[in-house]
Design brief:
By secondary structure, the protein is of the alpha+beta class. Helices cover about 60% and strands about 20% of the residues.
Length: about 170
């Protein structure tokens, strides 16, 4: 509309003010919309950052729990390793005096409560991960352990000493 369409100048002025106000409202609306979009983008960034940091903290917590569990699990490993020669001595002594068997089984029971297990080798297939061949004989089935020279042990699933064995090879 132009100035001529209005019969009175006051109506024209009022209409002009309305148009300016409408334009101002649009500009303000656009400004608030931009601010809203910017705030939502920031909020999403913070939300992603929070999720990422929370995941990192959970992973760190799991790592620390596993580390503490391993420390607890293997805390007695040095003592147990030092007791292995005592078990060897008892094994050798049992061959001459069977009365030592209860002492050995009692000691072994205590050590087993802390995660020690004997590697059963005799008669099994040779496994270089848990056994060490110290001799070879030409008898029996190929790869079978004929004799155990020294017992091997695992502690909580990890080999702490391999069995020394004599293996059949043809």
């Amino acid at each position: 509309m132009n100035h001529k369409e209005y019969s009175r100048p006051l109506e024209f002025d009022i209409e002009q003010v309305r148009k300016r106000n409408k334009m101002k409202d649009r500009e303000e609306m656009k400004k608030y919309k931009d601010l809203y979009n910017s705030t939502m983008a920031d909020l999403n960034d913070y939300k992603n950052l929070y999720v990422r940091q929370r995941t990192e903290m959970e992973n760190y917590s799991k790592y620390k729990e596993k580390e503490i569990s391993n420390i607890r699990k293997n805390a007695s490993s040095e003592l147990i390793k030092e007791l292995l020669p005592v078990l060897d001595t008892l094994d050798a002594g049992i061959a001459h005096d069977p009365k030592l068997e209860p002492v050995k089984s009692q000691l072994l029971k205590v050590l087993q409560a802390h995660g020690l297990n004997v590697i059963e080798a005799k008669g099994n297939k040779y496994d270089p991960n848990i056994e060490e061949a110290v001799g070879v004989l030409d008898q029996g089935e190929d790869g079978t352990i004929l004799e155990e020279v020294q017992k091997g042990y695992t502690l909580n699933g990890d080999v702490i000493r391999t069995s020394k064995v004599i293996v059949s090879k043809r």
